[in-house]
Amino acid sequence: MTTTPVSSWRGVASEEQDELPERVSVLLRERSRKLLGDLLRPYRRPIALLTAIIVVSNAAGLAIPYLVKVGIDDGIPPMTRGAGTGVLLTVVGVILAAAVTQALTRQAFLRLSGKIGQSVLLELRRRVFDHFQRLSLNFHEKYTSGRVISRLTSDIEAISELLQSGFDGLVKAVLTMFGTAALLLILDVHLGLVALVPLPLLLLFTRWFRRQSVIVYRRTRETVALVIVHFVESMTGIRAVQAFRREPRNQEIFAQLNDDYRDANARSMLLGAEFMFGIKLIGNLTVGGVLLYGGYLAIHEEVTIGVLAAFLLYLRQFYEPMQELSQFYNSLQSAGAALEKLSGVLEEEPGVPEPRRPEPLPQPVRGAVRFEGVRFAYVEEMPILPGLDLSIPGGQSVALVGATGAGKTTLAKLISRFYDPTAGRVLLDGVDLRDLDEATLRQAVVMVTQENFLFSGTVADNIRFGMPDATDRQIREAAKAIGAHEFVAGLPDGYDTEVGKRGGRMSAGQRQLIAFARAFLADPAVLILDEATSSLDVPSERLVQRALRTILADRTALIIAHRLSTVEIADRVLVMEAGQVVEDGPPDRLIAASGRFAGLHRAWLESLSQ
Fold first, then answer.
1. 6-347: CATH topology
2. Cβ atoms of residues 28 and 8 within 8 Å
3. What is the pLDDT of residue 502?
4. Among 395, 399, 392, 396, residue whose Cα is nearest residue 566
5. Which of 64, 334, 400, 562 is most exposed, with the fewest beta carbons within 10 Å of its own?
6. Residues of CATH 3.40.50.300 domain(s) within the chain?
7. Phi-psi region of 79 (alpha: psi -120 to 50; beta: other; left: phi over 0)
């Protein structure tokens, strides 16, 4: 029996559907509650203390109307008889004490709840970020950065609102409503029953609001996520946007998404306003009815003026929490939708899981790579590698050539274990990559791509990226080895020069040289160059070509390149077509064989002569 993965409906994997199958919705709610429970479990004692504080605060608040009743009925009559103000002053003093108690407990609650809320959010952010870091490359290649950012920003902010005010609103409302109802019946049963007549209508109205709010607030979270996704993608790809004059179309799309968010938000606000209007209407009608009936009873001396005054004050307290419940439901539904998405994210499993019992690599690491019957497909019906057998001895540099889609980059990703093969094995020094822990594999295999990402920081920071403890001397030696020292030394602040966002202050060639220095410093047993020199200008390429022979010495190298100069330094060339190796041998021998590589070689020479 197959099951629908929650992550395909919610979380970053979601396409933000408006409607969910009921079975999936129930599962999402269960997982959301489990996530919230896991986050709150370490704070059970502080939460119990918070509950006690709210109980004391509510008890003080509930006492005040009753004390008003005592003051009117038992404090004022003695004054009219000249018996003094002792009773009234005592009641006033107790009322002040109750008010001070309420204020102090409120302050204590805000401090403690704020501390708990921020601690929970800290843990949630850490957990989500750590999980994103552990997820495999196939996750990050499939899902947009905008959705990821939405999970870490707007969704967590929605949960923050619930933690800051939701607990207080819910507990306070429940205690106040039940406490008030009990006191109304204690003060006068008949008048209390009249006051509680609208309660069934109130419950039905609240139930309607709760059902509507689930739909409305889920839609609000979905639309704001789409706004963030489009904004982030437009800003990330601003060069392409401007190059293709895409600004007007992007503005149209953003305007539509923004309108959808505005409409969804307006609907949520309207729903809240409708609920508050209904509550106030029912509350005011109830007060009017109690005042009429209570006045009648007071005239006939069946209730005292103090009891009637207390009733009116209690009714005000009874309906105020209903309005707070409206705000609580707003926060609850918004946070509930966010929790669904976050729990969906946290349910995502890495495509390349860590082994339960990792094996060590034989020492010293030679870097021998072997493919045994490897099959791989991004889409099941379209295999990229239909069944590859290949052996690369340790220390050998191998160039992969072939048309786009031949499987060259896929081969590199499998060696880096960004993906696991659908069938077969990839081995490093005789050990299946699936049996190596991630730290061991990343230390042994480093990949340099065409568009290497530079992080905000200095040149030195980026070179030591894979080796955080590297000294300044080691950084300079790495830069000298690949020919980057000269240009780095010529920068305004040398190795302390800021590279800017995504390395924007560096040229493409400079970014590539820094990436080479980073890889050289990491000193891997296997170095993969995925079209790593294709973005270099001629002077930069000459520098790199001189350094490559040094970099590739005594290590296994897999070179994916379209430039003849890069291929010529390889010990061996593999020509790939449709995921299979169709030619294999040293470059000079393949050129002499007049096969596919010889044809590519002639084409390269002709392009150089033009």
1. ABC transporter transmembrane region fold (1.20.1560)
2. no
3. 73
4. 399
5. 562
6. 369-609
7. alpha
